[in-house]
Structure to design on (606 residues):
């Protein structure tokens, strides 16, 4: 029996449901079937692209023909994905679209230099448009992920590596916070939020993009602090929105304590890059009872802590002290919240008597 | 801060975590967390010991001894995350052992294959024991832990099967064990105790191995037509797997 069915039975047993209620038939496959489809779809896309690349190389060397063919393939994929859904069509659509994108990217890389800002900006814009328009969950997740990656590359080449993670983090937080606000955009917002979250987690580790900004290494120290400070502000923004959602008055003690605690956690985790992002994901997932997001948040937090432990820029002693401080703050907050809850319940019981 | 003080501080932290465990009711979440903290702090203490006496950077003995010394706490904790941490340490020890000293398994097997066999045996045994014990011990009934173990098994079995397919030196044993495990996955998780995640993992593993085997067989074609054949094969297998899994999902609902 599923959890929903158990809950329904409990409610019916306690006579809390007036009418006979039945559970709707669940048609959405679980996440791991989607992952299976995605991985196999990308493997198929790889073969499809290899076929096209080899055939094209035999026919023509013209990059405009390649780009045009890529564009036609992406458009074809759009119409395939728009048609009534079946697994087979969704796979064909994904494979055709990814192959088309690879052909366009191939033409662009030959036309522009790999380290040109334009190529990354075009990549980010095109992928964001695909994430918005392509009527497929998997496609949207993939496009949003690549868009985040391309955007961070662009920002690094422009010389603003301290800003990109905050911009992506803000968009990501906004999407998760407003996931259910526009009914017709729920699947779109959710898929894009997933893609950006995955992109953010990987980009915050900075390793995959390290080759892009060797020239910025000198300014990296300041950049990192600025980056983390902005991330900390976004964490506070998430707290403010959640307080508003639960109609807590901004000037109340609870609200001020909550904001101060959020700021304290953000400041304490500034030295370990990425930890603020992980904490934000955990908070957002807790607010929305989102188990997959919670898993992503916890896994990324563990990863960032491990990465911080192995960073060679600061001594083990400094790292231990900052982690101990963060741990103590979190423990004190947990204890404080438990005491406050107890006190509140005691006051409630007295009033009731 | 002198080294002695640092040692005292770390040991005090371990003792504090254990005292907290002894003072509160057993098998509560707080008691489990205090044992987990003690286990992690033990690792920190051992790492500091290694750093002070220069026992080498991240030797396999550090992680293995950490797991071994922490085992009594893992056993009494009745806490799945701590068991997973313990198994992760054993996996890591195996990787580092192979990195430093070469293959554990004799019979002329190379380093990578030996590592994959060791990981497969460790994770497969852990999964079997976990599955058998979770009926009796409710606290082991955590799907995420079983899934992580199954991913570990699938990864090493697939890598062994791929080695069997593509390497001319590797034996056929890897492929045979992979086939046996795939059949067992179907029997256990379809017939005895249905589990959609495990079956989806089995399907993914099957698709990868069948496609890889076809790449090997059709490799001699060598032109673009081979890729279009592989494309249709992948799409066909995935579609069949997805349709079957969705049918099962409705059945299980």
């Amino acid at each position: 029996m599923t959890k929903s069915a158990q809950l329904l039975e409990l409610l019916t047993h306690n006579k809390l449901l007036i009418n006979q209620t039945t559970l709707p038939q669940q048609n959405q496959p679980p996440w791991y079937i989607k992952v299976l489809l995605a991985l196999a779809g990308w493997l198929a896309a790889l073969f499809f692209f290899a076929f096209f690349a080899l055939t094209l190389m035999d026919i023509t060397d013209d990059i405009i023909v390649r780009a045009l063919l890529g564009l036609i393939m992406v458009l074809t994929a759009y119409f395939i994905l728009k048609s009534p859904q079946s697994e087979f069509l969704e796979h064909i659509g994904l494979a055709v679209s990814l192959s088309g994108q690879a052909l366009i990217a191939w033409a662009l890389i030959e036309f522009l230099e790999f380290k040109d800002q334009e190529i990354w900006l075009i990549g980010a814009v095109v992928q964001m448009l695909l994430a918005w328009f392509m009527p497929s969950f998997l496609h949207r997740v993939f496009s949003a992920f690549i868009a985040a990656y391309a955007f961070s590359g662009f920002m690094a080449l422009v010389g603003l590596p301290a800003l990109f993670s905050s911009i992506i983090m803000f968009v990501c937080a906004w999407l998760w916070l407003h996931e259910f606000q526009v009914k017709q955009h729920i699947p779109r917002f959710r898929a894009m939020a997933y893609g950006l979250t995955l992109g953010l987690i990987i980009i915050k580790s900075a390793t995959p993009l390290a080759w892009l900004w060797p020239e910025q290494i000198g300014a990296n120290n300041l950049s990192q602090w600025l980056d983390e400070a902005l991330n900390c502000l976004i964490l506070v923004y998430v707290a403010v929105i959640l307080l508003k959602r639960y109609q807590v008055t901004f000037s109340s003690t609870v609200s001020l304590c909550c904001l101060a605690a959020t700021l304290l956690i953000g400041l304490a985790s500034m030295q370990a890059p990425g930890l603020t992002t992980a904490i934000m994901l955990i908070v957002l997932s807790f607010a929305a009872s989102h188990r997959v997001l919670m898993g992503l948040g916890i896994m990324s937090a563990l990863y960032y802590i491990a990465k911080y432990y192995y960073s060679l820029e600061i001594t083990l002693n400094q790292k231990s002290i900052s982690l101990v401080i963060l741990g103590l703050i979190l423990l004190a907050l947990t204890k404080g919240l438990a005491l406050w809850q107890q006190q509140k319940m005691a006051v409630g019981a007295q009033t009731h008597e | 801060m002198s080294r002695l003080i640092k040692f005292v501080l770390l040991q005090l932290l371990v003792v504090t975590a254990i005292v907290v465990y002894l003072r509160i009711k057993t098998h509560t979440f707080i008691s489990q967390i205090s044992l987990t903290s003690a286990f992690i702090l033990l690792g920190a203490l051992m790492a500091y010991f290694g750093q002070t006496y220069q026992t080498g950077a991240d030797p396999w003995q550090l992680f293995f001894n950490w797991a071994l010394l922490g085992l009594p706490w893992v056993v009494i904790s009745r806490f799945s995350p701590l068991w997973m941490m313990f198994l992760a340490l054993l996996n890591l020890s195996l990787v580092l052992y192979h990195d430093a000293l070469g293959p554990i398994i004799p019979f002329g097997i190379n380093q990578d294959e030996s590592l994959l066999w060791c990981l497969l045996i460790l994770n497969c045994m852990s999964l079997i024991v976990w599955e058998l014990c979770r009926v009796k011990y409710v606290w082991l009934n955590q799907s995420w832990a079983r899934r992580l173990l199954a991913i570990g098994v699938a990864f090493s079995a697939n890598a062994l099967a791929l080695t069997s397919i593509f390497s001319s030196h590797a034996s056929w044993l890897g492929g045979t064990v992979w086939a046996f495990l795939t059949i067992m996955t179907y029997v256990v998780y379809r017939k005895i105790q249905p589990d959609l995640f495990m079956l989806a993992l089995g399907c993914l593993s099957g698709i990868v191995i069948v496609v890889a085997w076809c790449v090997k067989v059709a490799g001699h074609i060598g032109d673009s037509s081979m890729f279009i054949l592989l494309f249709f094969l992948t799409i066909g297998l995935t579609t069949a797997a997805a349709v079957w899994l969705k049918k099962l999902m409705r059945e299980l609902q």
